[in-house]
Amino acid sequence: QVHLVESGGGLVQPGGSLRLSCAASGSIGSIYAMGWYRQVSGKRRELVATITNGGEITYVDSVKGRFTISRDNAKNTVALQMNSLNPEDTAVYYCNAQQKTLLFGPRIRYDDYWGQGTQVTVSP
Fold first, then answer.
1. Residue 54 class from Cβ within 10 Å (0-12 exposed, 13-18 middle, 19+ buried)?
2. How far apart are CA 20 and CA 30, in angstroms?
3. All residues at 6 or more sequence positions from 1 whose CB lies less than 8 Å from its CB, including other chains
4. Any idea what the Cα angle at residue 101 is, between residues 61 and 67, rounded to 5°?
5. pLDDT tens digits, residue range 66-117?
6. CA distances from 36 to 30, 52, 107 (A)
């Protein structure tokens, strides 16, 4: 079991910055990757940025050069620094942790854990 607690959302003007933080607890040793997703009401949740336990980082094209994902030494926290925010970035942002479990033989199971979500609103 992995528990995620998010913080840092709020209201910001276009061009401004916010920093989201996510703290993981529980079976943190089993976490394969952590990241951030966002969702607008009525639309599908989309990946924003992820980082694996091997240090591999992925960004959605729309945030490249503006957002930066990072983690601490123990890999139990992850942050998303968001600069040059646009109104299109307005969404509920969810912290995600992916747990990898080895099953019988070569089969691998991935389980997703989610934070409660934090609202980010970019508006004049």
1. exposed
2. 23
3. 26, 27, 113
4. 20
5. 999 999 866 689 999 999 999 999 999 999 999 988 888 889 898 999 999 9
6. 18, 12, 26
